[in-house]
Amino acid sequence: MLGAAVVALVLAGCARPQRPTLGGPPEPTPPGPAIGLPESPAPATATRAAPRWEKLAELSGGAAPGPAALRVAPDAIQWRVRWSCAEGAGTLRMSTTPAPRRPGPLVSAPCPGEGEAYSIVTGEVALAVQAAGPWSATVEQQVETPLEEPPRPEMAGARVAAEGSFYDIERTGGGTARLYLLGDGRRFLRLENFTVSANTDLFVWLSEAPRPATSAEALDAPYAVAGGLKATLGSHNYEVPADLPTERIRSVVIWCQPVSIAYSAAALGPP
User: Fold this and answer.
1) Long-range CB contact pairs, 210-215, < 8 A, 24+
2) Average per-residue pLDDT in the chain?
3) Tally of domains within the chain
4) CA 75/CA 146 separation, integer angstroms
5) Among 89, 108, 143, where does a domain finish?
C-alpha cells in the first residue's frame, strides 16, 4: 500500500488537488491529455497547450430574455456556464440547441442560487434562459490551442528595455521575452513564440536572478509575480507591477508553485 501511495504522489506532478469551484461541485475531469503527469520535454513542434478556460460571453437578464447565440470552438474540450439568480426569479432553466446528449435542460434550479453546468456540444449553440427575475451567467470554453494575444496598442512605438530567450531548467521552454517601457511609465512583459512543457498552475516571475540555472537559484533570488501563465503556447502580455523598479528585473522565470520548481527562464539583457 505504501508503494502505491508513493506512486500516486509522483504522478501528481505540478497539478493541485481538484478544487471546488464557486457555487458548484468540483470541475469534472475533461477528456484529453492527462494534466499533472511527469512530462517528457515538449517538442518544438507542439501544437497543443495545457487546457485553459476562455471566456465566451457575459450574460444577464430578467424575465423572458431572447436566446443567446454562442460559438463554441469545434475543437473545444468542453464548455461551462457559471450562473446565479436572485430572489423572485422562480426556477432558472437553461436549455441549448442543439440539445445535450443527456435529456433535460442544461440548468434547472430554484432561485436565489448559483452553480455551474457543463456541455460538450460545440459549434453554433443557442442558449435559452427562462426565469421570472434577475439572473446572470458567465460562459467559458476549455481549449488547448495556442493563445495568440496581439501586442497591446500602447506598445506601438514603446521602447524595448530588455529582452532574452527562454532556456530549459526543470522542463523544456522556448521563445522570447521582451520588456516594454511605455511613455506613461507603465511597463509590459511580452512573451513571443513562447512554449513550455504543458501543465497547470504555472506562474510568471520577474526575478532579480541574472541567469538562474536551477530551481534553488530562482527561489533564492527576490522576485515579483506578474501573474499566472496565460497559456503554455503562443504570445501574450503581462503588466509589470507598478512598484517594481525596472533595474531589478533581470530574468523571467516560469515557476510551478505547488512543487516549487522552475520550468524555464529567460535572462534579460539589452536588446
Assistant:
1) 210/250, 210/251, 210/267, 211/251, 211/265, 211/267, 212/169, 212/251, 212/253, 212/262, 212/265, 213/169, 214/169, 214/262, 215/169, 215/170, 215/260, 215/261, 215/262
2) 85
3) 2
4) 12
5) 143
Task: Tell me how far apart the alpha carbons of residues 15 and 259 are, in angstroms, rounded to a whole number.
Answer: 9
Does pTM top 0.85 for this prediction? Answer: no
Start-to-end CA distance of the chain, whole Å, equals 55
* 161 and 239 together in one domain: yes
Domain end, chosen from 97, 115, 143, is at 143
Instruction: For residue 153, give the CATH number of its domain.
Output: 2.60.40
- Looking at the structure, tell me whether residues 64 and 121 fall in a common domain: yes
186/107 Cα distance (integer angstroms) = 44
137 and 157 fall within a common domain: no
Higher-pLDDT residue of 50 and 63 is 50
204 closest CA partner among 270, 266, 142, 161: 266
- Please tell me which residue, 268 or 34, carries the higher pLDDT value: 268
CB 200 within 8 A of CB 256: no
**For the residues 104-114, what does the mean pLDDT come to?**
95
